[in-house]
Amino acid sequence: MSSRKNIGFLSFGHWTPHPTSAVRTAADALLQSIDLTVAAEELGADGAYFRVHHFARQLGSPFPLLAAAGARTSRIEIGTGVIDMRYVNPLAFAEDAGAADLIAGRRLQLGISRGSPEQVVEGWRHFGFAPAEGETDADMARRHTELALRVLAGEEFAEPNPRPMFPNPPGLLRIEPYSEGLRRRIWWGAGSDATARWTAQQGMNLMSSTLKFDESGEPFHVQQRKQIDAYRAEWAEHDHGFEPRVSVSRSIFPIVDDRDRSYFLGSGDRADQFSRIDGTRAVFGRSYADEPEALIEQLRGDEAIAAADTLLLTVPNQLGVDYNAHVLESVLTHVAPGLGWR
Questions:
Q1: CATH assignment at residue 290
Q2: Residues in domain Luciferase-like (predicted)?
Q3: Model pLDDT for residues 75-85, shown as the tens digit of each residue
Q4: Band of the pLDDT at 58, cuts 50, 70, 90?
Q5: Who contacts 204 (Cβ-Cβ below 8 Å, separation ≥6)?
Q6: What are residue 84's DSSP bridge partners?
């Protein structure tokens, strides 16, 4: 596999009403997210991705942001990492996604999943959703996803009114607006090897984060690489009609000036961290903060980055657009060429 990478950023879109934050309001978070997408495109980055969290001072409603960023740019991929499908009406999701994708010129890359630990107890119930009898909330997320995938593919299923307000095309109707090709640009955020295999069965791209369930006690990047291998092996057993993509996320901060030294010198986690999430043991990947030459050597040994085609750089968005653009530029110019990523 080629070592060249699609390189983008992943922002959690935090805001904090505090004097030290460059992002103090929801408006700041949204507008700066658009500005950072524009800056990233100008720098030659390949993607702008946004985390979605509900009931939190973070980005919660992705499609207005994706559409606005798409209208301000022309080349860069715009996506999510990830949308919690427990909170989603699949048909409304397909309508919103289709509209945003068309506005963006078919550049959306939508990461979805069953979600992460929540800010509130069973928050999806407040959105009007509940698991069916015998289902877990994860089952509900998968059920929502399977329906969304069918309608994103253009499935015609709705019986037309015999006396409609406007003329209908013949036959059953589909969700509109329909954006051709979007179905192949859906990614699933998988936390385990089994979920990665399910992702392949469903014909979705694989999005693997900076944590996964600990299944072997091995270093994070080794477990993540094995997850990618399991995904690709399962994909090969199916005929989905296209080549899948795989992304991994990393926190990478080249130390090239005094700002970098003040923020990150000595802050890189030199080792993985093991802890529990919702009662399950998980492994969290290390972060990287060092001078470019040292970073190149450290990253050269990351098996999961080597196996993936897309690298998402998690950015500290509360430090502002200019600084985060500087981080992206530093990776693209001082680190990526030395690893063959550019």
A1: 3.20.20.30
A2: 12-260
A3: 999 999 999 99
A4: very high
A5: 149, 186, 187, 188, 244
A6: 113
